[in-house]
Amino acid sequence: xxxxxxxxxxxxxxxxxxxTVDGPSGAGKGTLCQMLAAKLGWALLDSGALYRVTALxxxxxxxxxxxxxxxxxxxxxxxxxxxxTPQCDGVEVILGGENVTSNLRTEETGAMASQVAAINSVRxxxxxxxxxxxxxxxxxxxxxxxxxxxxPQAELKIYLTASAEERGQRRYKQLIxxxxxxxLARIIEDIKARDDRDMNxxxxxxxxxxxxxxIDSTSMSINAVFDQVQQAAQKIGLL
Length: 239
Ligand code: DC
What we know:
The chain is α/β, with parallel strands linked by helices. The protein has a single domain, classed as Rossmann fold, CATH 3.40.50.300. It has 10 helices and 8 strands. The chain is globular. The mean pLDDT is 93. The site of 2'-deoxycytidine-5'-monophosphate has 14 residues, from helix 2, helix 5 and helix 9.
């Protein structure tokens, strides 16, 4: 018999439930996740931002994106902070003391992120960092492998998709509305190339978890998507 009584053992902190939202770029995951986090008052993990920050850090240190070991080392040692803006209308990303928020969401950074995300050792290096976001009262996890690899025990898994043409149209509209120039055919081509890289890489490829609810938002509004997810959450007592 051990001298250690059960009540003496350190308690594992309660982790809280997780809702995962995976899917290709531009399907509306980010908006859906923000709506869910606000509705439930849960934490939000934007896992794509970690891959984007890793790519930016590599670029800053002049490390080639195909130097697997060097990029994995950067991912393991990331000095990154996600700060809610003083106006509470978004998140600022601070990398090594520098505010990189405006560079984070560009198409160029997205393409670089997709490259580093295909490196096995980079994904390993970011795994625990992502899992550490799980906390009470709950977590909304946005990404490509949230339901398949990072949180396989998640209470609710959503796979949100839409046709490449529709996702291209949405992106085009965003850019035009922001006063930027854009070429629709080129955007759709880039989306297809990114899908191909994310879905066909050997490590943690983008695919729905076997137990995910698949929602095709091609002809749905974001509010209709949100309602469908709310209903699924209600059904299992999360709401
Ligand atoms: O969601 P996003 O566009 O910010 O993601 C940027 C890239 O990072 C995307 O091409 C795929 C990759 N990614 C990934 O492989 N796994 C994740 N969990 C999140 C993003």
